[in-house]
Amino acid sequence: MPTYLVMLGPPGAGKGTQAKILSRRLGLPHISSGDLFREHLRSETELGKAARSYIDNGNLVPDDVTIAMIQDRLECPDCADGAILDGFPRTPAQAAGLEEILQDLDEGVDTVLYIDVGDDILLTRLTGRLVCEAHGHIYHEEHRTPEEEGVCDIDGSPLIQREDDNEETVRNRIDVYWEQTSPLIEYYQERDLLVEVNGEQPVNEVTEDMLAAIRGVS
Ligand code: AP5
After folding, report:
1. Radius of gyration of the chain (CA)
2. Are 52 and 66 in contact, with CB atoms under 8 Å apart?
């Protein structure tokens, strides 16, 4: 049976960090809507050009564009056993869109892992985050430093700061999360799919809590 996991939580909660670990541990592809948009920005596709102003300002890209992009990705052969969705869905309309996509496959969301972290911590995490240029491996200038400064331990590519990780944009992303995405907490609670994890613990403890939750419901 394919497994579909959703990572829910505010910007900087650790969705990408945990999704990459779970992807290796569970053998499921990691689908990050933010990474997909950034690939389109880099390749200057029409979708990338349309999404740029939303991303640069920390606002959400319109639902129809986003749902279509995720549907295309979920139809790729590597998703035959399921996927870990990171950053999608982010609005009730996107959640309904995902339900329809999975219903067409006779599937549904198995578990929503909601990572809870206070707003003050999110700001420090994001303004200090560094990501590798090649594959988006995630570091932090104080809490998760690479062995060689400015170089990714995994693939040797340069570490950069994401353009939307400046303080003004981060504050807007957090506001947008509370206004448009946080209703999904209740949406998935009502469907009995939500598991809340304390995201203020060390990374490995967050992972263990998630794995325990996934095993508990599978
Ligand atoms: P996206 O790329 O999805 O950004 P986000 O949701 O804002 O999430 P982040 O990637 O910033 O944070 P994260 O939770 O993954 O944290 P991370 O693991 O990196 O979206 C970017 C933009 O694209 C959006 O603003 C929007 O414009 C657009 N977009 C994307 N999806 C969309 C959608 N569905 N609909 C419409 N628009 C969409 O960790 C952060 C830092 O904390 C790192 O430095 C890490 O090392 C550190 N850290 C992580 N865990 C811990 C821990 N336990 N303890 C200490 N430090 C930790």
Report:
1. 16
2. no
b/e for 70-103, b at 16 or more Cβ within 10 A?
Answer: beebbeeeebeebbbbbbbbbbeebbebbeebbe
61 secondary structure, DSSP code: P
Percent of the chain with pLDDT over 90: 95
Distance 8 CA to ligand 1 centre (A): 10
The encoded tokens of residue 17 equal 């960090």
In sequence order, the β-bridge partners of residue 160 are 131
Answer yes or no: 129 catalytic. Answer: yes
Tell me whether residue 24 is one of the annotated catalytic residues: no
Q: What is the pLDDT of residue 57?
A: 95
Q: Residues 76-106: pLDDT tens digits?
A: 999 999 999 999 999 999 999 999 999 999 9
pTM of the model: 0.96
Q: Which helix (H) or strand (E) holds 7?
A: strand 3-8
What are 96's two structure tokens? 């309904």
- Among candidate residues 52, 144, 162, 171, the one labeled active-site is 162
For residue 198, give the 3-state DSSP assignment. strand
CB atoms within 10 A of CB 35: 17
Atom nearest to 51 CA in ligand 1:
27
Of residues 20, 38, 90, 125, which has the active-site annotation?
Answer: 90
> Residue 201: beta bridge partners?
none
Residue 206's closest CA among 194, 197, 214?
Answer: 197
| Predicted confidence (pLDDT) per residue in 58-70, tens digit | 999 999 999 999 9
Region 175-198: mean pLDDT is 98
